[in-house]
Aminopeptidase N
Amino acid sequence: MTHDRPHCGVRFPAMRRVPLAVVALTAAVLPAGCDGTPTPRPTPSAPTSAPAPPTIDYSAWQAGASKPVADKLYPKHGTAALDVLHYDLKLAWRPEDKTLTGTATLRLRPTVDASEIKLDFKPYALDEVSVNGLATEGAKVTAEKLVVPATVKTDEPVTLTVGYHGKPATTPMPSHRGDVEPLGLTVTKDGSLWTMQEPFGAFTWYPANDQPSDKALYDIAVTVPAGWSAIAAGTPAGQSGTTFRYRSTDPMASYLQTLAVGKYKKIAAEGPNGLPLTYWYRPGVDERLLPSLKKSPSFISFLEKRFGPYPFPTGGIVIVDSASGMETQQMITMGGRPAKFDPAAYEEDLLHEYAHHWFGDSVSPSTWTDLWLNEGWATYVQFLYQQSLDGFSDAELETYLRQGDARLRKRLGPPGSPQAANFAESNVYICPAAMLKELNDALGDAEFFALGKAWVQTQRNTQQDRASFIAFVNKQTGKDFTKLINTWLDARSTPK
């Protein structure tokens, strides 16, 4: 995410601050309707045992297996009791009455014995709920949770299907950034849709385990009116009439999914080594951004040279009605209304978001406490990119990072202990970038980039944390950097 973080200036060292923004299953979608209030259901006297699952080879979704952990920063979102292996979302959007109709089929691996299935979900009207193909009574949506009575057993996968309809509603972003916007599925005046959902917000349009440690596979089909397009994260999987399909065969955290619906035009391009790229823009609105989008191959080449092959089969960018930007997987969601359009700054932000596809998308944090692990790398790499263009010295960069680090630690605290009310504020960008600069200085460029490349290439499609990163650094370099890393993450003032 590039929300409201400090940037190096185009002509260093004059810095600027530019707002930006941030075992298995299948699914189905449903009829449309009403006002979004949940349909009352009779509550059974006791939970219904999940019927014996049909003969399904859940190994087909094994790549979506995760080790979910509870998120201490936002404990109301997500659960460690379920591992979603696969989301199959069949959606339909009617802009005339702003109604979303959906059928979500989830392949779930329970991680504990339980008497219910509980997922994050906004209060849509429920049209059907079934477990292992059998209708289930008593399901309800309350306090932004879908609760389905069903006895489940540890490591015995089940299939949950939920049909629903209603009007999307957003959720507040827990931050004081200058570019704060509501999270989740947003409806514009003309009936278009777009979403950014970090640290949460996927639950505003489908039932989700909405926390970073549960990565899953996706199949998405979105039906829209004639003349409209639908864009989601993942690899384009074809179009039938006005139904657009996307598939993710690399696991994805819920915050990295995206959805945009509107009257878009598409530009097909090619990146390094024949990588298919797609740029989606709104005619008459986004043309000024196209020259920057078309520089994507050079951004990816810069990153591949340092960190190895792009980690996904396709890439691209979709422009939405936002002032921010997000590293949504394989399809960056980029704001089309920056406060003041500066092509150089916009391109730095695009480079930052592409860097996240290595640091954050392919290798994700287990909890939001370790957001620094995403943003520190993407920010430091962005500074290196700007340095390659503007030629400022390592000493100038060191001075800038230390000055910013001192100011931000004093105001927001150390990056290793972020506060829930201050999500993705500047300390988790600049302070860990300063730490990586120290690591780079200690190792030299050759060994530092070898470390970064090994990290993202050997840990692909995993969730990581501070402890695993430190262990990796020490093993890869043969040196003990535990004190350096912990000091930069925990100190109340800038380390000497």
